[in-house]
Amino acid sequence: xxxxxxxxxxxxxxxxxxxxxxxxxxxxxxxxxxxxxxxxxxxxxxxxxxxxxxxxxxxxxxxxxxxxxxxxxxxxxxxxxxxxxxxxxxxxxxxxxxxxxxxxxxxxxxxxxxxxxxxxxxxxxxxxxxxxxxxxxxxxxxxxxxxxxxxxxxxxxxxxxxxxxxxxxxxxxxxxxxxxxxxxxxxxxxxxxxxxxxxxxxxxxxxxxxxxxxxxxxxxxxxxxxxxxxxxxxxxxxxxxxxxxxxxxxxxxxxxxxxxxxxxxxxxxxxxxxxxxxxxxxxxxxxxxxxxxxxxxxxxxxx
Length: 303
Fold this sequence. Notes:
It is built from six helices and 13 strands. By secondary structure, the chain is an alpha/beta fold. The strands form two sheets. Strands 6, 7, 8, 9, 10, 11 and 12 form a seven-stranded mixed beta sheet that branches. A six-stranded mixed beta sheet has the order 5-4-3-2-1-13. The longest helix is centred in the first third of the chain and has 17 residues. It is globular, with a radius of gyration of 18 Å. The chain starts with a strand and ends in a 27-residue tail after the last helix. The relative contact order is 0.17.
């Protein structure tokens, strides 16, 4: 399986321009014969970098309200004609894709950190909403559910995906292992500090390939008219990428890449998964379902 992990900066708070970047990079990945294309967490329209650097929890602060309103306005409706251009790009590239988006809820006032799974033939086959936004993210994203805790098949491989720190959730990982995952996509906002340890850990624990993908962010990415720009210093780098790929032995295939823009490529031998599960399969011959069991609610809890 040929993997293309896209480490580029989004057009921050610009849904249409960020979708354009996704379409272009999917085409580039397709031209490079990629089987799987992965994008960072909430690439469209970007990660809310301001929540941990400003007074984001201030009650009815007009600038915070305006920043949130703009974020909601630029969020994605998965079934929209605009996002359909991404689905068409996946079809033309003949590759499976995971695309991180800020997903607008049916209420119009809430948003989710979502990872959209797109099959080149079937189109959108899954939308995983992050189970628990991390720390300051809870000021902008609603809690997700288990509807997206599923695996997908593409060209003989079983593929799964999770967002950022839910990769640290033992039961969420176990749900992915139990779904038969062989290639796991971990989508991050983008930092070597976030990806370096957990990528190898998941790979070794699950005896699978892990593709961690993140984006570089800096203060220059903020639009000039962003409501909180005067509270965010110039010349600051928020995230440095950190895209990396580990094999089922827990060793690096691609060490974390930082401060670079572009596609990180890797060719994976899926037979390595079976080789390394000879001595350990956490939900197979090394499991004890008579003693330990995981129950997953895969219902969509909100529209």
